[in-house]
TrEMBL record, chains A, B:
Pfam families: MarR. Residues 1-138 form the HTH marR-type domain. This is MarR family transcriptional regulator. It comes from the Bacteria. One of its GO terms (biological process) is response to stress. Keywords: DNA-binding. The keyword Cell membrane does not apply. The keyword DNA-binding applies. SUPFAM superfamilies: Winged helix' DNA-binding domain (SSF46785). GO terms for molecular function: DNA binding; DNA-binding transcription factor activity. SMART domains: HTH_MARR (SM00347).
Length: 145, 145
DNA sequence: TCTTTTGGTTATCAAATGATAAGTAATGGG
DNA sequence: CCCATTACTTATCATTTGATAACCAAAAGA
């Protein structure tokens, strides 16, 4: 097995993934939201409720900057902070109703483009894709190395 | 075949890919080079020789900004511009020797991390991965939809 | 030839992001 | 109870990036 060739293929593949996700998500970010803020909202949408520290760590943003962006997002009424009873230093973040609506709309658009992209594939092929993703996810892109 | 579930899996997968590529490439960008400049160099490295317009289009950077970043890169002696005989408006960009050396070093580091990541896998598993990437590349992440 | 288009440049400005220092309040461990 | 640590905030500054206008020269088309 030629590992070097596999690496080449891997690099080309990740490039394609970045390019395609760019295509799928472009223009879905609503007006007056910065890319960074959108990516934070995306993370909250998937993982809520989350703490500031979690956002900071997972998105690789320093705590001061995370705090700043989150203030802006709450000012825009897109998410809300809740105190957590057992540790009054922490705060749990959730999308607000309008924030949730916004992200639902965004995901709908992305989904529509995704379905368009796979529309011509047979059930067999879709199964193959599901299987391929499962393999890669578990063997190469798993978080714990 | 539940397309909705496949979409969920797809989203989680692309997130993992972004995360892993971040881990693989972090700290490989040499001092005094901005992220944007690094990504341009990466593109040149893979696709050289390229024109300014190609960089602009593929990396989604406006021509003025592409021109600016490229000027900085040539000032840093990391790439070189060549005139193209049959159309004197165009310029072909290539990595300079030191630019090539820099990118080789970066790719070596990334490769080392990649190999570490797959070191415990059997030949069978590696073949499976190769196959999985081939499937996804052709059916989902192909450029022409 | 005249005009339009293409490929690229320069200059300038605004906005987004990153980095750092300093501070508060709550928690937890001795 | 004291001290260190955690979670988060505020303020400030530098850098990076994005966006726009105005420009030049070569090429291509009528």
């Amino acid at each position: 097995m030629d590992k070097e060739a596999l690496f080449q293929q891997f690099v080309a593949f990740t490039t394609s993934v970045h390019e395609v996700t760019f295509e799928l998500t472009k223009d879905v970010k609503p007006e007056d939201i910065t890319p960074l803020q959108y990516s934070i909202l995306e993370y909250i949408a998937v993982s809520q409720p989350v703490t500031l520290s979690q956002i900071s760590e997972c998105k690789h943003i320093s705590m001061p900057n995370t705090s700043r962006e989150l203030r802006k997002l709450t000012e825009k009424q897109l998410c809300e902070k809740f105190e957590v009873p057992d540790d009054r230093r922490k705060q749990l973040i959730r999308l607000s109703e309008s924030g949730q609506a916004m992200m639902n709309k965004a995901f709908d658009q992305i989904g529509a483009r995704f379905f368009e992209r796979i529309q011509d594939l047979s059930t067999e092929e879709l199964k193959g894709i599901h299987h391929a993703i499962t393999i890669l996810q578990s063997k190469v892109f798993d978080e714990n190395k």
